[in-house]
C-alpha cells in the first residue's frame, strides 16, 4: 500500500512538472516578440558598453592619428557652418602648398557628428563636441547591430539567426578595433552604412519595391560620403547581378532594384566633391556602368523573345547579348590602356598584391596595408572562423529547389571579403559583418537540427520521451564556444583595442598602473614654446596630431597626397644637419 502511494506521488510530481514545462514553453512563444525586442536592446547596449573601456581606463580623448584631423575639421564645421566648411582652404597643412579641405575629404563622419551636436543644442542639452566625437563610434556600433539583425533576418527569415548575428557583430574584435570610444575615424559610421546598404538591397530584390531601391541608393550615398570603401559596394552588387544572369536567376525584381540603385546611386555619388565625376570615369566604377548596359540588353532581348517568339529571334538575342558583353570589355580595355581611366593605387594593390611595393612604396610601408596572417584571423574572429564554412554551405544548399537571392548575395560577399582581407589587413573590417552573418546562419541551422528533439520533447506531450545525448552534447559545446567568444572579444576590446596611441601605459615595479603622457606633453611644449606662425617638420605620421594638439603648421601629414613632399622631408631627416638644412 505504501509503495502504491509512493508511485502515485511520483507520477503526480512528474505530471505537474511536465505541465509546468509545457505552460512555460507556451509563455515563451506568446511573449517571443517582446523577448526579441528586449534581447536586441541588450545587444545594442552590449555593443556600446564593450567599447567604452578606453574612457574608463584613460579619459575621453580622440585616438590615433587620422581621427585628429576629423576632430579638427568637425570643430570648424560646427563653428563656421557647411558653406565655409566646403570652401575652407587649410593653410596649416602641407606648407607651403596648403590643402583645399572640401574637395579632399569624405565629409560623412563630420556631418554626422555636427548634426548630433546641433540637434542636442536645439534640445538645450549642453555637450562638448569632443564628447560627441568620442562616443559616436560606440553609438553607431549599436546601429550596426540592428542593421546586421535586419540583414540576416531578411536573408534567412529567422529572427534567431538575426539575433545571433547582431550579438556577434556587437563584440567581434575586428569591428571593435575601429569603433571603440575615441576612434573617430571614417569606419566608425561607414560599417553601419555598408551593412544597411546591403540590407536594403536584399530587401529591394526580395520585394521588387521601388521604395526600398531608393532607400538603398540613399544609404549608398551616405556610404560614399563617409569612406572610400564604398567602391566595394559599387563592385560587389554589379558582380552579383551579372552572376544572376549567368546562372539564369535574373528576374524583373533584380532589374528594378539594380537599375534604380545604379542611376540614383551614381547621381548621389557625384554630389560628393571628393568623388565628383570620378563616379563616371574612374576604373572602380566601370563595372557598374558595364553591368547596367548589359542588364538593359538582356531585358531587351527577353522582351523581343516574348514579342516575336521565334527560334531565329532567340539566336539573334543571344548574339546581341554577347556583343554587348564583348563591347563592354573592349571599351574597358581601351580606357585602361589609353590612360583615360585608371585604377587607384590601393585598388591596384588589391588586384595585384605586389603592385604597391613596386610602384608606390609609401602605400606598402603602412602597417594596415600588409597581408593578413592566420593568427590575425583567429585573434579577430576566433570561433566564428569554424562556423563560417557551415554558414556558406547552408547558403548554397537547396538553391536548385527554391532560389534565395539573399543567401546567394551573402555567399558572394563572403568569398570576395575573404580574398580582399587576405590581401590587406585593413579590409578585415569589411569581412567582419559577413563573418558574423555566415557564422550566425551556420550555428542557427545546426542548433535548429539538433534542438528539434528539445522542441518535440516539450510539445508532443509524450512524458516517456527521452532526450538524445547527442543533442545535449552539441548544444552544450556550441554554448561553451559562444561563451569563450564573448570572453575573448571583451578581453580583446578592453586590452588590445582600447589604448589611445597618444597616451601609453605601463606597469610600475609594485604592479600598479603608470600613465606615460610624453606625446601630449611634447605637443603642449610645441604650443607654448614656438611662435604661432612656426612651421613644424616631422615625419608624416604625426602631422595631424601636431596640427590638432599644438595648432601649428606642418610640412606633411597623414593625407600622404604628395609623395615628393614626403620624400623630401624623409631625405632631409636622413641627411647630415648642414645638408638637411
Structure description:
There is one protein chain. This protein is mostly helical. It is 71% helix and 3% strand. A two-stranded antiparallel ribbon has the order 1-2. Strands 3-4 form a two-stranded antiparallel ribbon. A two-stranded parallel ribbon has the order 5-6. It starts with a helix and ends with a helix.
Number of helices: 29
Contiguous uncertain segments of 5+ residues: 1-14
Helix-strand makeup class: mainly alpha
Per the principal axes of the C-alpha atoms, what is the gross shape? globular
- Give the spatial strand order of the biggest sheet: 1-2
User: Could you tell me the radius of gyration in angstroms?
Assistant: 28 Å
Strand content: under 5%
Query: Total number of β-strand segments?
Result: 6
Q: Roughly how much helix do the residues carry, as a percent range? A: over 70%
State the end-to-end CA separation: 109 Å
Task: Please outline the major beta sheet.
Answer: 2 strands, antiparallel
Mean pLDDT: 85
Characteristic terms for this protein:
581 residues, two-stranded antiparallel ribbon, 29 helices, disordered N terminus
Task: Report a brief summary of the structure.
The chain is mainly α and 581 residues long. The chain contains 29 helices and six strands. The protein is globular and about 80 Å long.
Helix-strand blueprint:
Blueprint lengths: L1 H29 L1 H18 L3 H5 L8 H15 L1 H5 L2 E2 L8 E2 L7 H15 L6 H28 L2 H13 L1 H4 L10 H21 L2 H17 L3 H17 L5 H19 L7 H4 L1 H26 L2 H28 L6 H7 L3 H5 L1 H5 L8 H8 L2 H13 L8 H19 L4 H23 L1 H8 L9 H27 L8 E4 L5 E4 L1 H12 L5 E2 L6 H8 L2 E2 L8 H11 L3 H4 L1
Parallel strand pairs: 5-6
Antiparallel strand pairs: 1-2, 3-4
Helix pairs in contact: 2-7, 2-8, 4-6, 4-27, 6-7, 7-8, 7-10, 7-23, 8-23, 10-11, 10-13, 11-13, 12-15, 13-15, 15-16, 21-22, 21-23, 22-23, 26-27
Amino acid at each position: 500500500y505504501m509503495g502504491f502511494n509512493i508511485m502515485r506521488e511520483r507520477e503526480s510530481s512528474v505530471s505537474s512538472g511536465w505541465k509546468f514545462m509545457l505552460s512555460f514553453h507556451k509563455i515563451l512563444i506568446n511573449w517571443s516578440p517582446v523577448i526579441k525586442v528586449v534581447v536586441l536592446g541588450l545587444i545594442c547596449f552590449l555593443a556600446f558598453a564593450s567599447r567604452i573601456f578606453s574612457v574608463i581606463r584613460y579619459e575621453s580623448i580622440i585616438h590615433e592619428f587620422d581621427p585628429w584631423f576629423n576632430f579638427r575639421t568637425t570643430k570648424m564645421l560646427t563653428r563656421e557652418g557647411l558653406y565655409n566648411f566646403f570652401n575652407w582652404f587649410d593653410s596649416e597643412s602641407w606648407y607651403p602648398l596648403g590643402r583645399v579641405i572640401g574637395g579632399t575629404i569624405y565629409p560623412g563622419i563630420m556631418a554626422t557628428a555636427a548634426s548630433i551636436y546641433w540637434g542636442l543644442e536645439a534640445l538645450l542639452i549642453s555637450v562638448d563636441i569632443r564628447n560627441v566625437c568620442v562616443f559616436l563610434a560606440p553609438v553607431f556600433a549599436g546601429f550596426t547591430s540592428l542593421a546586421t539583425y535586419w540583414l540576416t533576418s531578411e536573408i534567412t527569415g529567422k529572427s534567431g539567426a538575426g539575433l545571433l548575428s547582431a550579438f556577434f557583430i556587437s563584440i567581434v574584435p575586428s569591428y571593435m578595433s575601429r569603433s571603440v570610444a575615441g576612434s573617430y575615424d571614417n569606419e566608425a559610421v561607414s560599417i553601419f552604412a555598408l551593412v544597411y546598404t546591403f540590407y536594403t538591397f536584399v530587401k529591394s530584390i526580395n520585394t521588387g519595391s521601388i521604395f526600398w531601391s531608393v532607400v538603398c541608393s540613399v544609404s549608398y550615398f551616405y556610404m560614399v560620403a563617409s569612406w572610400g570603401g564604398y567602391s566595394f559596394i559599387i563592385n560587389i552588387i554589379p558582380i552579383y547581378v551579372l552572376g544572376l544572369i549567368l546562372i539564369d536567376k535574373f528576374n524583373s525584381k533584380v532589374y528594378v532594384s539594380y537599375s534604380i540603385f545604379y542611376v540614383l546611386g551614381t547621381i548621389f555619388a557625384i554630389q560628393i566633391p571628393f568623388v565628383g565625376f570620378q563616379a563616371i570615369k574612374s576604373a572602380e566604377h566601370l563595372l557598374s556602368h558595364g553591368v547596367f548596359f548589359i542588364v538593359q540588353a538582356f531585358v531587351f532581348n527577353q522582351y523581343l523573345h516574348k514579342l516575336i517568339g521565334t527560334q531565329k529571334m532567340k539566336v539573334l538575342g543571344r548574339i546581341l547579348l554577347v556583343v554587348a558583353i564583348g563591347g563592354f570589355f573592349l571599351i574597358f580595355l581601351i580606357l585602361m590602356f589609353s590612360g583615360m581611366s585608371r585604377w587607384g593605387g590601393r585598388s591596384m594593390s588589391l588586384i595585384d598584391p605586389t603592385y604597391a611595393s613596386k610602384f608606390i612604396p609609401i602605400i606598402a610601408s603602412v602597417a594596415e596595408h600588409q597581408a593578413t596572417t592566420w593568427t590575425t584571423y583567429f585573434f579577430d574572429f576566433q570561433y566564428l572562423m569554424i562556423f563560417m564554412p557551415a554558414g556558406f554551405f547552408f547558403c548554397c544548399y537547396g538553391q536548385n529547389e527554391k532560389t534565395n537571392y539573399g543567401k546567394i548575395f551573402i555567399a558572394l560577399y563572403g568569398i570576395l571579403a575573404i580574398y580582399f582581407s587576405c590581401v590587406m589587413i585593413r579590409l578585415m573590417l569589411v569581412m567582419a559583418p559577413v563573418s558574423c552573418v555566415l557564422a550566425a546562419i551556420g550555428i542557427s541551422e545546426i542548433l535548429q537540427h539538433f534542438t528539434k528533439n528539445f522542441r518535440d520533447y516539450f510539445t508532443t506531450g509524450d512524458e516517456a520521451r527521452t532526450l538524445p545525448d547527442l543533442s545535449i552534447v552539441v548544444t552544450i559545446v556550441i554554448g561553451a564556444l559562444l561563451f569563450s567568444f564573448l570572453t575573448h572579444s571583451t578581453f580583446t576590446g578592453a586590452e588590445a583595442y582600447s589604448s589611445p596611441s597618444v597616451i601609453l601605459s605601463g606597469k610600475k615595479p609594485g604592479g600598479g598602473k603608470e600613465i606615460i603622457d610624453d606625446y601630449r606633453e611634447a605637443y603642449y611644449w610645441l604650443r607654448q614654446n614656438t611662435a604661432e606662425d612656426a612651421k613644424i617638420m616631422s615625419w608624416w605620421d604625426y602631422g595631424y596630431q601636431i596640427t590638432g594638439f599644438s595648432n601649428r603648421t606642418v610640412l606633411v601629414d597623414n593625407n600622404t597626397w604628395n609623395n615628393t613632399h614626403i620624400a623630401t622631408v624623409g631625405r632631409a631627416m636622413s641627411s647630415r644637419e648642414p645638408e638637411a638644412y
